[in-house]
Design a protein that fits this description.
about 500 residues; alpha/beta; Aldehyde Dehydrogenase, Chain A, domain 1; Aldehyde Dehydrogenase, Chain A, domain 2; 7-stranded mixed β-sheet; 6-stranded mixed β-sheet; about 40% helix; about 25% strand; globular; binds nicotinamide-adenine-dinucleotide; methylmalonate-semialdehyde dehydrogenase (acylating, NAD) activity; Ald_DH_CS_CYS; methylmalonate-semialdehyde dehydrogenase (CoA acylating); Ald_DH/histidinol_DH
Amino acid sequence: MNTIGHFINGEIVNDDQRTQPVYNPATGETQRQVALASRATVERAIAAAEAAFPAWRETPPLKRAQVMFRYKQLLEQHAEEICGLITDEHGKVLDDAMGELMRGIEVVEYACGAPELLKGEYSKSVGPAIDSWSEFQPLGVVVGITPFNFPVMVPMWMFPMAIICGNTFILKPSERDPSAALRIAELLQQAGLPDGVFNLVNGDKEAVDTLLNDPRVQAASFVGSTMVAEYIYHTGTAAGKRVQALGGAKNHAVVMPDADLDNAVNALMGAAYGSCGERCMAISVVVCVGDTVADAVVGGLAEKLAHLKVGPGRESGSEMGPLVTAQHLRKVRGYVDRGLDEGAELVVDGRGQRVEGHAEGFFLGGCLFDRVTPEMSIYRDEIFGPVLCVVRVENLQQAMTLIDNHEYGNGTCIFTRDGEAARFFSDHIRVGMVGVNIPLPVPVAYHSFGGWKRSLFGDLHAYGPDAVRFYTRRKTITQRWPSASVREGSSYAFPTL
Ligand code: NAD
């Protein structure tokens, strides 16, 4: 069976002993193995990245950007192939995979602006014949550790920006769907990136811990579950590194009595069940203001769920694919069982979902719970599956208190026609990304992505302007070139103008 290796210093490396199966979630079959990097393999990648850093640091930003321009073209040329790899290992439907790739390419496009982004700040005459400027210098070797749910987009939130800032990079993608990341690594080489500037190691905790503890690694970007994000943040910062660790989510959508309910129901279907609910921005709770709204929303969602086409991601017409692994399917089903035990009303039960010819696939139909209350585990925990919870409240203030009290604060949205309510909500809600009649308010590449509360550990968000700050260190230089005739005496007072 084919074993997926690592990409180190421009070469595929495949001599690790430990491996793990990679499944096709639509069939349940093991289709490949992935190598799990030992400490020695990871150290080889770090050494390659460190060796490549001095020359890459000196490469002019315009030259770095030119690599990104070529990379964008290659990604577009190979889009179908990349999306096929995503679907075969993650399970999501092909057009969803294409959406993911396109959002990743947008970060590459932003990174093409490297010369502009790295111009720095300049002040002439801060004192007599004194000029001052701040420049943004690369950190050195930086790493990215990424989750299974966006095997291409989330790595691309990180490495294009890290690389154009002059760093060298090591990616540790998810071991559950690693092939697409390896393919986009090869394309970087084809785009002309010098060997060693980008490296990829597959693996698990052993690889991650090696990266976090090695003194040659300067910074780590992480995206994944909150438990691991918190661990990465504490371990990395204790080892003296700069760390941004994006964690889990429980995103609420508020539906106000004046909302366009047909529009809200349509939007909620995609936001809750798209990608089988395996998105950190998925809507997993609908907060209905008033029973009339709740009855209409629940009725509308139930009707649409009856027609949701669940099937293999590669089959045209499929709207929702399988979950990523059998283990994850068991976990999500377990939450549906628990929701019933806890007293929620299961309006639509997806546990009986069958997909013809795919009896062993990891499929679960869309599930809808009504009358969910805040103490239930299906409300508190991130389920990361096609399970939507409806909570009924009486007014906007109750909805906002509910959201503010949740441990996560990644995304949220409000459906309303009332501008005043929307403005109040977006101004005060304690959540990092807010949509108004937009269910998945994922920021575009020239803004930055990140949640609040326990959805993000660290100060800076991912991609966009924050990425330039995260992947560089500010240096401020103050210089004077006095004319040769001017001679100054010593001064023992603190310098002022
Ligand atoms: P995960 O936390 O299990 O894994 C993420 C990465 O961490 C993987 O590369 C994995 O190999 C590594 N890892 C796992 N356990 C580890 C450990 N004990 N020590 C060190 N490294 C470890 O997450 P996942 O299941 O792959 O992805 C889903 C999660 O990611 C969800 O919680 C989702 O909300 C979150 N996510 C968040 C965002 C965001 O932007 N906030 C985006 C996408 C996904």
